[in-house]
Fold S-RNase.
Amino acid sequence: MGMLKSSVAFLVLAFAFFFCYVMSSGSYDYFQFVQQWPPTNCRVRIKRPCSNPRPLQNFTIHGLWPSNYSNPTMPSNCAGSEFKERKLSPKLRSKLKRSWPDVESGNDPRFWEGEWSKHGKCSEQTLNQMQYFQRSHEMWQSFNITEILRNASIVPHPTQTWTYSDIVSPIKAVTQTTPLLRCKFPPKSQTKSQPKSQATSQLLHEVVLCYDYDALRLIDCNRTAGCGNQQAISFQ
Ligand SMILES: *[C@@H]1O[C@H](CO)[C@@H](O)[C@H](O)[C@H]1NC(C)=O
Ligand SMILES: *[C@@H]1O[C@H](CO)[C@@H](O)[C@H](O)[C@H]1NC(C)=O
Ligand SMILES: *[C@@H]1O[C@H](CO)[C@@H](O)[C@H](O)[C@H]1NC(C)=O
Ligand SMILES: *[C@@H]1O[C@H](CO)[C@@H](O)[C@H](O)[C@H]1NC(C)=O
Ligand SMILES: *[C@@H]1O[C@H](CO)[C@@H](O)[C@H](O)[C@H]1NC(C)=O
């Protein structure tokens, strides 16, 4: 009897551990590959300005985020291996300095560590650290958003605005899938002196491409856009 009890206890415990492991290892459906427009990052930071007062005029990587269709905020901060810079080859590190710079405070490895801890760990079963950063860099290289937009005459401009579909169409034409745009509103302190028409326009901030579970094949993004519906978008 005692033995039965202890083996039941063992099973319960084993199951509990297994359950915890499954929960913390994170499950996801697809990836969001998020690129940002550094001037917008710096524009909306008013308390602590960007370390480089002349932000890059290139879309750069924000992160590669394993994502869940049914629960948009998950997964994040999963259990997994700690970030180690030495797991990235010197060659990869120098590539990432171009594609994935910390445009806000200039501390690239700390930015990579933050993205790995919050997101990368949740897909470690698919991409280990080296693969996670390598694949992200390849994604950045395979579609040059800055150039796609420039080819469609969408270039930074102080007053011109575009519609959501003006910006999405050329990207869609090249990638053959639907991306997602995210915008930010300029801080109030910067818009007071501007004419009303300009003050209300949102700034293009991020372009998201979606990839399948293996991070190999592009798929349509179908989340709600992060830009105000039907509102003019400015790109500065
Ligand atoms: C998505 O999140 C929900 C709620 O946290 C979870 O039950 C489900 O297993 C997740 N699905 C996938 C595929 O990650
Ligand atoms: C954009 O990135 C490319 C590749 O690293 C670089 O050659 C170019 O100078 C960058 N352009 C700007 C405007 O920063
Ligand atoms: C992307 O395109 C921009 C604009 O044409 C160019 O400055 C940049 O060097 C390109 N980046 C890469 C990695 O080729
Ligand atoms: C931009 O246009 C040039 C010239 O037509 C073309 O060679 C290049 O492939 C285009 N770039 C992209 C990213 O579509
Ligand atoms: C997005 O696509 C996935 C996969 O086809 C589907 O499961 C999900 O319900 C879709 N979500 C929305 C909001 O359409």
